[in-house]
Amino acid sequence: MTHMTDDLIFSVTLLLSLSLLYGLIVHYFYASIVTKQVLTGALFGGICVLGMVSPIELANGVIIDPRSVVLSIAGLFGGPIGAVIAASIGGGYRLVLGGDGVYVGLSIVIVSTFLGLAYRHCVKKDWLKINVLQLFLFGSLVQLSLLLLATQLPETAYKQLMQSIAIPRFFIFTIAITLLGLLLKNIENLKITELSYKEISSRLSHHLHNTPLAAITWDRNFNVMQWNKTAEDIFGYTADEAIGKHAKDLILETGSKSEHDVNQVFIALWEQQGGERSSNENVTKDGRKISCEWYNTSILDEEGKLIAVASLCEDVTSRKKSEQIIWEQAHYDSLTGLANRKMADEHLEQKIKVADRSNTSVAFFFLDLDRFKDINDARGHDIGDKLLIQVAKRLRSHLREIDTIARFGGDEFVIIIGGIDSTDQVDLIANDLVKKMAEPLNLGKELAYISASVGITLYPQDASDPIALLRNADQAMYAAKNSGGDRFQYFTPSMQKSAVSRMALINDLRTALAENQFKLYYQPIVNLMSGAIHKSEALIRWQHPERGLIGPIEFIPIAEETKLIVDIGDWVFHEASRQAVRWRSSFQPNFQISINTSPVQYKSDNFNARDWLEHLHVMKLPGDAITVEITEGTLMESRASIDQVLFDFRDANIQVSIDDFGTGYSSLSSLKKLDIDYIKIDKSFVDGIAPNSNDLALCEAVIVMAHKLDLKVIAEGIETENQKRLLIAAGCDFGQGYLFSKPLPAMEFEKLLNI
């Protein structure tokens, strides 16, 4: 009995040696599945043969050997090919041995192999696992199956088996299957881990080599241990040149802030042993400075001590430049290079905070160039841009670097000066600023003469927030401009009241036309020689529901500014046309009404003179029933679109009159080219006429010139008989003024026509 048990243990030892040989096969041939299975089958088959060479023999041809263990494991780990090879070798050798138990022996080969393959299949399907418990149950099943097969042995041999070795065999071989299965599984797991590690290492190495980031490893002394291809591309050094070199010999400028920053990062990594992120200026092999972002991680040994640092580096030079460009575009004016409104707002908030801490004031200047539009329109936008650039340079040279100078758009500039202790300082700055702006500007081949209107408000005296400061300065600037420009004006509370009133007027004006609040008054234009009234000028009035009758001088500039003048002008034309039809049919068949037009109308895309002509046609009214009055400024602009409108009027026989002649600049060639019909001498000249006066001489000169050009002359603002007499003597054709009548509503005007 003891001898048999020793033989069983020897068989188990033989089986366990199988694990070493299997490990070699797995190590060298794991990647080749077929080769691995063939070699595994041959190995398991050979072990079967060795076990049967020195078996426990119970009777003639009845032997006990470890083939059931080997072949069941072969089915589990060797796969179909390996299991078949092992079974063929083991079964073949058992057949060669022969004896009474040969068929039972062959059955053991087949059943053990089948059970191993079945277990393998269940593991593949994830129905079972290879672990201690399930391997033990599997081994028990194999051994129970063999005991059932043993019933087919000769009775004497079966009894001897059951009495002497059945129980030791069951437990020893079951344990052998369990241990051998665990060993082989562990060998495979180790190989899988090894291959996975190699694959991961290979992928990581490939990734680090081809990553768009520079991957660099440093030792404790900050010398390069690893240097990938991207690091070569970024810094210009090859790996051979870089490895072993200190950072300051490669990418750091000696004594620079970056060297100090990097040292601080490494000190932090030594102490914290975590990760650090930093941004640095580095240098390349050719001396270029570049901006880099670094991601640094500690590498620790088994004891947790830092042994190296792994760094990933990205060259962000282009991105930084793009960000800088975007930031500058968002904060600076592209034409002048001055701060824009966004930057000015930020600086104003900062200066307000400083003023609060230091108990000082902030002066906010709003500067608008006088007559810039005239220069821009007359000389072109290129000259206008050059002028704005020169203005910006002048402002920079005149003010301190700590003062904020901004362009808000067009010809509007803002200056913000902090640290103000008294208004005397502001007076000096403002006076000097206005004088400097009045000096001629050199635009290359020509000089430009401009001036500036400057509005000034103070924080915290006038307002407590940036929005209110801007509003106040804007109102003060307009007050300076309305006073003639070339001056500065402080903000006063009355300006705010005026601005509020103006805004209310604008809002009311937007609904006035729809609510039929406008009316036309008519002032006669008298033939000075005969005293007959064949003409009148239509003058608009606004019957405001709360403020009463408002004259044009108060609301027409606002209507022009808001472009409402286009619709208002259309209404005046239609209303005057309707009145002309009535008076022509009732009083004078050749009666003519003059209507005032605004330069804004001629520049608007919404104005179409042909609509007016079509309206006259619908009303069956000839063109000479209407006279259109234009300003000298409109005449001087003489752009193609304006000229075409005037030509259309001429072709329709609508006459054109130059209003307030002598107060602006007129071109004699334009008077002739555009076929002007009337010149109206401005009231300012008529007021001062007296015998031998300059004003009389001017009026006489205008009348003579007009008659030479075949133009008729209308004198405005005649209030005395003496003025009338002198104008008649000078040859003036028509007169208009309070001497004859003030402007009257249509019904009252008709009384004049009945006289």
Automatic annotation (TrEMBL):
Domain GGDEF: 360-493
Keywords: Cell membrane, Membrane, Transmembrane, Transmembrane helix
UniProt cross-references to CDD domains, sorted A to Z: EAL, GGDEF, PAS
Domain PAC residue range list: 276-328
Membrane topology category: Multi-pass membrane protein
Sequence ranges assigned to domain EAL in this UniProt record: 502-755
Gene3D superfamilies, alphabetized: 3.30.70.270, EAL domain, PAS domain
Alphabetical list of SUPFAM superfamilies matching this protein: EAL domain-like, Nucleotide cyclase, PYP-like sensor domain (PAS domain)
Parts of the chain that traverse the membrane: 12-31, 37-56, 68-89, 101-119, 131-153, 165-184
Descriptive protein name: EAL domain-containing protein
Protein species of origin: Halomonas aquatica
